[in-house]
Amino acid sequence: MEISNNHVENAIRPFTVGRRNWLFADTPKGASASAAIYSLVESAKANGLDIYKYFNYILTLMPGMDWHNHPELLDKLMPWSEKAKLYCADKKLQEN
Predict the structure, then answer these.
(1) Could you tell me if residue 67 is inside a domain?
(2) Domains contained in the chain, number
(3) Which residues contact residue 65 at a Cβ distance below 8 angstroms, ignoring those fewer than 6 apart?
(4) Is residue 43 part of a domain?
């Protein structure tokens, strides 16, 4: 066990800083979409992925997938999947 919770506090800092900006979401659907994107970004960061590469990866593959009828296909796109880690690893994090 770590003696401090600095890692956790640093992980939630973007959320607490951005919270004032989210007050101005025009609709509940807009707020929901923002929350989904934010969740993907933070999950990708937590899994050591380059955010740009990850979004490029999922937005390139999703249109060609029949994920509406086969939702299990989305497992390959999750930030913790081995394929996502293979294609989207953040090289800067690997160097440290």
Answers:
(1) yes
(2) 1
(3) 73, 74
(4) yes
Domain encompassing residue 16: 6-95
What sign does the CA torsion over 22, 25, 27, 29 have? negative
CA distance 90 to 79: 12
Q: What confidence tens digit (pLDDT) does each residue in 14-24 have? A: 767 766 666 76
The structure tokens listed for 28 are 């509940």
Side-chain half-sphere CA neighbours of 36 within 13 A = 8
Model pTM?
0.73
Contacts of range 10-18, beta carbons closer than 8 Å, 24 or more positions apart: 11/42, 11/46, 14/42, 15/42
Instruction: Supply the angle between the helices 28-46 and 6-18 in degrees, to the nearest 10.
Output: 150
- Write down the residue that tokens 């899994």 correspond to: 47
